[in-house]
Each structure stands twice: as structure tokens, then as C-alpha cells.
Amino acid sequence: MLMSANRPLPDVAFDAAALSRALDWVGMEGIALPVRLSDRGLQAAARVDVGVNLRDPERRGIHMSRLYLQLQQALPQARLDSLELDGLLVGLIESQQGAADRVQLVLHYDHLLERPALVSQNAGWKRYPVQLRSERGPEGSRHWLSLSVEYSSTCPASAALSRELNAESFLAAFGEGDVDADAVRDWLAGKDGLAATPHAQRSMAEVEVELADGFDHLPVAALADVLEQALGTPVQTAVKREDEQAFARANAQNLMFCEDAARRVGAALSSLPWVRTWQAKVSHLESLHAHDAVARVAGRND
To answer: Which of 8, 11, 142, 167 has its CA 20 to 30 A from that of 226?
Structure first.
């Protein structure tokens, strides 16, 4: 018991609860903490949520400050691997001295990855929103990694309609019979050679994967690589004209409805041996419509 001027400070946390009921989760959200991203000491600013269950229905509250202080002391130095995360979860439960047997820890931060340009020698940094959710109970620990990836999606229907208009424009310009190849090339390269363009939009793939036991590092870069390779048109950073032209070619070669994108993401996630279960949502932020096109897919890797 704390003392002030030789008198004990009151502590109402040990008073009886007014209404007897066990609670699923009690804790804090939005704690500001740095997290360690590599053995080289690289850190990122994170928002941390933590909570435990309150098993005793007669107990008024948990030891919330103990959760906070333990996170302050341990998390900035902890590696984001299964061994250290499991140890941290055990410590959070033990800090409650029997009041809890389950804990949930959620880390939110932005992960920066340097990405090369498509053709030129330039490179730039991209921001990937990350969420790491870890839970531990009597049956053990589980960890889920969530990641968002931005990409470009060009509508296949719009592409087909644009090709039809371009073909009609060509026929109107050159008619029937033989045509001069140089004249056609010049026409195609000019403003008259493009009667219509398909609509495209920035799009988002949001995935959550349950990580297999024993991961030795958080596979953010590996997951981003898999998703961007599957989609084929990730948004770029530093670009020159040659990169922009290559990006236009990549969009033409990867025409996608949201259903196509969801199937690509699902196929990529289902091939990962370090993933147990997964779910994904793709959102095409429409440039034609005032609403978004969305598809979801989920699976389990046996």
C-alpha cells in the first residue's frame, strides 16, 4: 500500500464490483511506443492496443498500469519474432497475478520499403500500413499479420469498349484497302490515334494472414512482394518517362475486375508455407462510378 505523509493512499481497485460479471477484455488502446524492426536498431512509431480478460466476476478491475509499464520496458527492445512476442505475452498475463489467463496485443505502424523503378535507375520509399495482432491463452499463442498494398486496376470492359472506338476511328481515317505503314504509325502516335482510353483507378488489397509457429522475423517485405507480383501493377514511387510508359504497358497486360484481383491474391496467399489461414479484401476505388467495387476471399493452408 502506498504511503503519503505517513498515511496510506486509498486504492479503490480492490473494492467489490457493483455488478458481478467476468469481462472478456480490459485494457488500453492507442499507446504510443516505438517498435524494433530489425537487429540494426531500426524503429518505427507505433500505436499499441493491449487487453486481458478479467476472470473473477467479483473483482473490480485489472492491474492496468502493470500492462503499460511492462510494454514500455519490453517492447522497444523486443524483436518481432515468435519467441520474443510469446515471452512478452506470457509476462503480460503474469503481471495480473492470476486475474487473467488471456491477453491480446495489437501493434499498428507504417512499414517503409524501398522500391526500384520499373526501368530507370531510380528508387523510392513506399509506406505499407501494418497491423500485428498477437493473442495468448491456455492453448498457446497465435499471431496475425495484416498488410495493405496499393495497386492500379484497369477495367477489362472499359478496355474492350475503348478498343472498339479506336478500331472505328482507324477505319474512318484509312478506309479499306492497303495502307502505308509509316502513315499508320504516325497516326497512331498522334492525338487522332487515340479515340478512347479505358478507365483505371488506384486500388487496395488488404490482407490478414495467420503466421505459422516459429517465425524468426516479421515477413512484411515477403508478403508485400508476393502481393505486388500477383497483382502486377503496384503503385510506383520515383518515375521517369520510361517508367511511366512501362507502367502503362503493365496495366494493359493486367486488366482486372475486382473479382480477378481477389482470385490473384487468393492464389498467391494459398501458396505460402508460412501462412496458416488468410483473408483478403480488394477495393477498386472507381473512377467511373461514385461507389467502389469490392471482393473478398479467404482460405486455409493445410
So the answer is: 142
User: Considering the entire predicted model, what is its pTM?
Assistant: 0.90
d(CA 32, CA 266) in angstroms, rounded, equals 34
The cell numbers describing 14, all together, are: 480492490
Buried b (16+ CB within 10 A) or exposed e, 177-210: eeeeeeeeeebeeeeeeebeebbbbebbbbbbbb
Cα separation, 133 vs 115, whole angstroms = 26
Give the tens place of pLDDT for each residue, 189-241: 898 888 899 999 999 999 999 999 999 999 999 999 999 999 999 999 999 99
Would you list the DSSP string of 29-62?
EEEEEEEE-STT--EEEEEEEEEEEE--TTB---
Hey, what's the torsion of the CAs at 150, 156, 157, 158, to 10 degrees?
A: 70
**β pairing state of 43-54 and 23-36:** antiparallel
Q: Which residues contact 167 (CB under 8 A, 6 or more apart)?
A: none
Burial 30-56 (b: 16+ CB within 10 A, else e): ebebebbbeeeeeeeebebbbbbbbee
**Phi/psi of residue 175, each to 5°?**
65, -155
Q: Is 145 left (phi over 0), alpha (psi -120 to 50) or beta?
A: beta
Give 101-156 pLDDT, tens digit per residue.
999 999 999 999 999 999 999 999 999 999 999 999 999 999 999 999 999 999 99
Q: Nearest Cα to 115, choosing from 229, 200, 37?
A: 229
